[in-house]
Give the backbone structure.
Amino acid sequence: MTAHAGGATVTHRRHPLRALATAEFRQFWRNKTLVAMGTLFPIGLPLVTFVIARRDAGSTATVAATTLEMFALVALLFVQYYSVLSMVTTRRGEGVLKRLRTGEATDRQIQIAPGVPGALLTVVGSVAIAAVVYGLGAPAPVNAVPIVVAMVAGVVLFSVLALATSGITRNAEAAQITSLPVMMLAMVGLGSIRSVLPEQLSDIADRTPFAAISDLIALGSTGRTAIAPESTAVLDAAGVFGAMGAPLATLAVWTVLALALTARTFRWDDRG
């Protein structure tokens, strides 16, 4: 198989997805803006938040949860969502997507490949952030499973949202505008924002995709959801599993909607 991704040619007969993902990663790494946005920004900003919060409140479970939440927001929006949106839109404009469909790779593999570089960087960033936060004395997570599930589900959902958004994005420059609704929707889900909203608006915000991710991270870190009152009982590791149902259902609904929207709007050619 010969695959072209952003000018790179990759030959790989047996594993087209691996070949495409490798080509996408090389192209990603050559873009210094995406590299900086995918490494320095998502790691640096949460760590600054952690240092400031730790100085004021000490290394508490809540500070750890807030730091992980900040990392998740930045990584999923800028490392995953925006980079996939930008790359897919650029590849379409260059005619690469259309050419790839003539090879051995399936449509699904072609759509998945642009999300691989961001996913790998998100994994590396997650490990780095966790090492710093917990290495500096933050209490160990109540249950690490919800945190891992939140990041994996978030990578999948925001990659699909990027594919859906690409259908209404004419070029890479326009992505700065078309990405705003998803970014605003995600930011509303931050625990710090939901906690100050009126009750009715907070209930709506609780059903946004990043709110579910935020609650999973908080459950794993502290044993409570992100906006639970201090008086709320802290769940143990087993109890956390029972509380994961609502946020997981929210993520599932959003993922199905994003997949349906992608199937309806995704374009392989600017003329199509």
User: Anything to note?
Assistant: The beta strands are 2-5, 8-11.
